[in-house]
Amino acid sequence: MSRPASAPAGTTRSDDRRLGTASWITARETLRARWTALAARERAGLSAAAWLVGVLLLWSVAIQPAWRTLREAPARIDQQGTQLQRLNRLAAEATELRAIAPVPSAQANAALQGTMTRFAGRASLQWQGELATVAVNGLSGDELRDWLAEVRSASRMRATQLQLTRGAQGYSGTLVLSPGGQR
User: Fold this and answer.
1) What pLDDT digit, counting tens, does each position of 99-114 carry?
2) Structure pTM?
3) Residues 6 or more apart in contact with residue 144 via CB below 8 angstroms
4) Which of 49, 107, 111, 175 is a plausible cystine mate for 154, CB 3.0–4.6 Å?
5) d(CA 177, CA 131)
6) Residues near 131 by Cβ (< 8 Å), separated by ≥ 6?
7) Which residues sit opposite 159 in a β-bridge?
8) pLDDT for 27-44, tens place per residue?
9) Residue 96 CB coordination number (10 Å)
10) Helix, strand, or coil here: 162?
C-alpha cells in the first residue's frame, strides 16, 4: 500500500481518514464561529440567498426539464402519429403492389410511353432491352414525384438509377426504370 506524497512516513489510510475527518470538523467549526459572529440581519440575508440559490438549482435541474418535456410531448406524439400513419399507408401500398400481377412487357411499354406525353419535350424515352432510360430537363419536384407514382402504378416499373441535378428550372438528368419484378 503506498502512502500519499503529502503524508508523513508513519501514517496509514486510517490516519488519513481521521485527518480528513478532523479537517472537516475544523472547517465546520470555523464556519459555525463565523456564522455566529455575523449580525442577525446578515444571517437572515445569507439564509435568504442560500434558499434562493437552492430553489433556482432545484428549478433548473429537476423541474424545468420535466416541465419542458410535458409541454412538448403532445406535439411529438402528434408528429409520430402522423409519421406512423404515413408509414402504414406506404406499407399497405407496397403490399398492394406486390399482390398485383406483373404487366406484360408490351403493355408496360405502352403505359410508360403514355405517361411521357405530359412533359411536352422536356423528357425523352429510350429502351435498352427491358430497361427504359428517361432523360428529363426542367421538371419540378412535384411533377417528378407524381410521374414516378404514375409509372409505378401504370407500368409496374420502378426507378433503379437516378442521376439528377437541381437547377433554377427544376430537375435535370437521367432515370433508369426497370420492371417491378427485378431486384
Assistant:
1) 877 778 788 888 888 8
2) 0.47
3) 136, 164, 171
4) 111
5) 6
6) 160, 176, 177, 178
7) 177
8) 999 999 998 898 999 989
9) 10
10) strand
